[in-house]
């Protein structure tokens, strides 16, 4: 009995021990399972945090290198893997705003604000997006209406501030710079675009146009040719290229005809070249000058005056244009205007003796123009014969004799004296020759003050009668065969 009890007690202890060990095993098993199951979750959380930081670093580097497409692709993948990754929406919205994909950018900002309500930075950037979008639309409208300066202000002060990588704004700015004739800035702007994409056809076209309007035609042609090698059927590039080739052809033809003395043909070619692009000032200044020189040679002073003035409107310091306009003014007998232009040219080019020579000629012409034109007074040409001079004198003397103009006696006397003075010079071969050569021989003649007076010592109340003895001899210091 005692032995059985011991055996029973030992069995119980063994059973309890087994139960205890079993419990310990279960607990250990559960603990190990927890470790095995929780470790990936902890690691995943840590990895998630690390991956996000690495992602945004890669995005930042892509933006610095202006690889916006790569940055957006990474952010889109991250959002697809974790739609609750708020910072990815913020980064994506910012990039899309910078490249002026405004509708997509606004959608991303709104998604970010759903995840992070009241975020002031995002709300501010969203406001900037709306400003940039509105400014870009306004700039396009102003460009279409021709208000290029105002459009440029919208682009530079708003769009390029909030959307600095906006290609649409960059191209519009380049077009506006060309429209406002700031060709150097247009070349710089398109140069930045080509640095990022050297095969950009629109940038090649705009940069070629800027060089074209600076009259750097060789460089312009190279830009057009590069674009056409990339796309031989590009309409605008073809149009610009062949228009420039035609302009150069017309210009050369005009210059060749002028140098060969085919002046009338040169005039037509110059006009044809000018008609091709009236706003191409940098080139047209040379065409206008060439046309002016040809017209001066043809003696077409009035037309030459217009062409030379066109040159000076473009470049007021063009010495050759001033000289040519001076020559044109001599042709139209604008003596004072000619002297003024030639003096200006001489001041700008004091060492040019040819300018001095033309100036002296103009000054002499001005001086001659200020003396009495005896030919004009008698109403005859400078080639009139002596008999024509006497005939004109007789006719006018009869017409203006004071006795025949009793109602206008004072004016008739003055006119009569002038006619007589004209005949005193032109009716004498020696005096006429000296007068025609430009010599001053009319001082003190025929206009009172002790000079030549057909009335002798006549005063206003003297009576005149005259007879023609043997025709109308004239000559001498009085009225010849006229007796008073």
Along the chain, the helix and strand elements come as HHHHHHHHHHHHHHHHHHHHH
| Sheet with the most strands, sense and barrel status | none
CATH topology of the largest domain: Serine Threonine Protein Phosphatase 5, Tetratricopeptide repeat
Strand content: under 5%
The CATH architecture of the largest domain comes to Alpha Horseshoe
Give the class from helix and strand content and strand pairing.
Answer: mainly alpha
| Total DSSP E strands | 0
Helical amount among residues, as a percent range? over 70%
Radius of gyration: 49 Å
The domain count comes to: 4
Report the mean per-residue pLDDT as an integer: 85
**Total of DSSP H or I helical runs spanning 4+ residues:** 21
End-to-end C-alpha gap: 201 Å
Unreliable parts: 1-8, 35-47, 446-453, 455-484
What's the CATH class of the largest domain, please?
Mainly Alpha
- Principal-axis shape equals rod-shaped
């Amino acid at each position: 009995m005692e032995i059985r009890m011991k055996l029973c007690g030992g069995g119980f202890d063994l059973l309890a021990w087994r139960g205890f060990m079993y419990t310990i095993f279960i607990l250990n098993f559960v603990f190990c399972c927890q470790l095995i199951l929780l470790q990936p979750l902890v690691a995943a959380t840590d990895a998630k945090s690390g991956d996000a930081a690495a992602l945004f670093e890669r995005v930042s580097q892509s933006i610095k290198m202006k690889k916006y497409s790569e940055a957006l692709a990474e952010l889109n993948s991250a959002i697809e893997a974790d739609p609750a990754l708020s910072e990815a929406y913020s980064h994506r919205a910012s990039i899309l705003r910078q490249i002026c994909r405004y509708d997509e950018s606004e959608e991303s900002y709104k998604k970010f604000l759903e995840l992070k309500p009241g975020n002031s930075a995002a709300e501010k950037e969203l406001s900037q997006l709306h400003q940039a979008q509105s400014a870009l639309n306004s700039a396009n409208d102003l460009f279409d209406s021709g208000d290029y300066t105002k459009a440029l202000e919208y682009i530079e002060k708003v769009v390029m501030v909030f959307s600095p990588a906006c290609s649409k704004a960059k191209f519009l700015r380049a077009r506006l710079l060309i429209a406002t004739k700031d060709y150097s800035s247009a070349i710089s702007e398109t140069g930045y675009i080509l640095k990022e994409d050297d095969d950009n056809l629109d940038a090649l076209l705009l940069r070629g146009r800027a060089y074209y309007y600076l009259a750097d035609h060789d460089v312009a042609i190279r830009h057009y040719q590069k674009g056409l090698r990339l796309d031989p059927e590009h309409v605008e590039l073809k149009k610009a290229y062949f228009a420039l080739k035609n302009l150069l052809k017309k210009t050369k033809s005009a210059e060749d005809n002028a140098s060969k003395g085919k002046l009338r043909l040169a005039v037509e070619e110059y006009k044809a070249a000018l008609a091709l692009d009236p706003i191409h000032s940098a080139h047209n200044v040379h065409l206008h000058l060439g046309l002016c020189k040809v017209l001066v040679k043809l003696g077409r002073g009035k037309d030459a005056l217009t062409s030379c003035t066109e040159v000076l409107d473009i470049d007021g310091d063009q010495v050759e244009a001033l000289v040519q306009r001076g020559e044109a003014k001599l042709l139209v007998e604008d003596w004072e205007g000619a002297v003024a232009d030639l003096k200006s040219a001489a001041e700008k080019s004091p060492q040019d003796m040819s300018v001095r020579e033309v100036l002296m000629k103009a000054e002499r012409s001005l001086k001659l123009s200020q003396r009495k034109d005896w030919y004009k007074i008698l109403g005859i040409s400078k080639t009139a014969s002596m008999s024509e001079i006497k005939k004109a004198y007789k006719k006018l003397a009869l017409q203006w004799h004071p006795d025949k103009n009793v109602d206008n006696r004072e004016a008739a006397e003055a006119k009569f004296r002038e006619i007589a003075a004209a005949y005193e010079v032109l009716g004498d071969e020696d005096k006429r020759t000296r007068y025609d050569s430009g010599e001053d021989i009319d001082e003190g003649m025929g206009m009172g003050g002790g000079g030549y007076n057909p009335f002798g010592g006549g005063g206003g109340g003297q009576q005149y009668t005259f007879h023609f003895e043997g025709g109308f001899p004239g000559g001498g210091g009085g009225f010849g065969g006229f007796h008073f």
